Amino acid sequence: MSQELDPRTRMLLEAPIVATLLRLAAPNVLVMVAQASVGLIETYFVGKLGTNALAGMALVFPIVMLMQMTSAGAMGGGIASSIARALGARRRGDADALVWHAAVIAIGFGLCFSLALLAGGRWLYAIMGGTGAALDAALTYSNWVFAGAVLVWLFNSLSAIIRGTGNMAVPANVTVVGVVFLIPASPLLIFGWGPLPGMGIAGGAMALLLYYLLGSIALIVYLRSPRSLLRPTLSALKLRWPLFRDILRIGLVGAVSTVATNLSIGIATALTGHFGSGALAGYGTASRLEYLLVPLVFGLGAPLVAMVGTCMGAGQRERALRATWAGAALAFALTETIGLAAALFPRPWLLLFGNDPVMLETGAHYLRVVGPLYGFFGVGLVLYFASQGAGRLLWPVLGNIARLVVAGVGGWLALRWGGGLAGVFAAQGVALVVYGIVIASAIAGGAWFGRVGWPRTTSGLLRRVAQA
Fold this sequence. Notes:
By secondary structure, the chain is mainly alpha-helical. The chain is built from 17 helices and two strands.
C-alpha cells in the first residue's frame, strides 16, 4: 500500500525523523534567511537616509511583518497543512483543487490589506508614536508596499502550496535568486544612478514589490511544469466550500496568533515612541532580530507542518508527536544561541543600521534584557507550526494571547509606575517565557488528542516530552 504513495510523501511517513527534518529544513532555512535579508537589505540602505527614515520604517515594519506572517505562516500554514493531509490520505484530486482555493484566498486577503492600510495608515502610525518627518516617511513607504499587497500574498501562498508537498527546494531557489536581484535593485531605486532618479524610501518599497512579482511568476511556472507533484488543471478549478473551510479553519485561527504576536511588538513600539525618534529607531532596529527569528524558525517549521500533517492524515499520531518534540529541541537551540550572542554583543548588529547614540543605547538595552529569553520564543513558534500540521491551534493561540496580555499590560504598568524602558523590555521578556511554556505544556498534556492533563511540575513536563 505504501508503494501507492509518492516517494516524497513516503519519506515524511517512514524516514528517520531528525535526519529528515534537518534535510528538509536546510534549504528552507536558507530560503528564510534569504527572505529575511530582504528586509535587512532595505533597512540598511534606508538607514543611509537618516534617523527619521529609519524611525518611519520602524513604524511600518510590524504591519509589514503582520502581513508576511499571516500570509506565509498563518494562512500559508493552513494551505500547506491542507495539502499535506490530503496527500497523506491519498486524496490527490483534492490536493490539486486546493491550489486554486489557495490562490483565491491570497488575492482576497491581499486586497483587504491594501484597502485597510491605504485608508487607515496615517491614523495607525500616529497612534504608534509617529510624528513629523518620521510619520511622513512611514506613510510614503507604507502606501507603496501595501498598494502591492496582493503580490506578497500570492508569493507566500504559492510557496506554501509547494512546501505542502514536502518540496522545500523550489521556494528556496526562487527566494535566493530574488535576493540576488534585490541587492542591486534596492539601492538603485532608493538613491538613483545616472539618468535614473532616486525615489528615496519609496524606492525600497518598489524594489520589494518587484521581488515578489518576479518570484510569483517563477513559482507559477514551476506549478505548471511536469516536475510539480500537483496538477492544478482547469478541470480542478471548480471551487468548493469544504476545501476553503479546510484551509481557513487553520489559517484564520493562526491569524489570531499572528496578530497577537505583532500586536505585542506594536504595543512595545508605541510605548517606546514616548521616548523620541532615537529610541523608536533603536527598539525598531533591535526588535528586527526577533523578527529575523521568525523566518529562521519557519525554515524548520515548514517541513514540520508537512511531516506532522502527513502523519496525522495517515493516522500516525505517535510519529507526529515525536517529530514535534524533535523540532522543538532544534528550535530552542537555534534561537537561544542567537539570543545569547545578541545579548553579549548587541552593538555589531545595531551598527549595521546607524550610529545615533540614543538608537544604539536603546537597542542594546532591549537585546540585553530580552535576547537571553529568545529560546522560549523559538519553542512556542515551532510548536505553533507543528499544531498547524495537526490541525489543532487552540493552545498556540491561547499562548500568544497570554503573551500579548503580559507584554501589553506589563509594559503599560511599567511606564505608569516609573519603570521606564527597562520595565517595558522586561515585560516583553517575561511574555516570551509565558508564550513558550503555555504551548509546550498543553501539547505535552495531550491537547491535540483530547482533554489537557497538565503536568504538575517541570520534571513532569519534561518526562511527557521524552515519552512522546
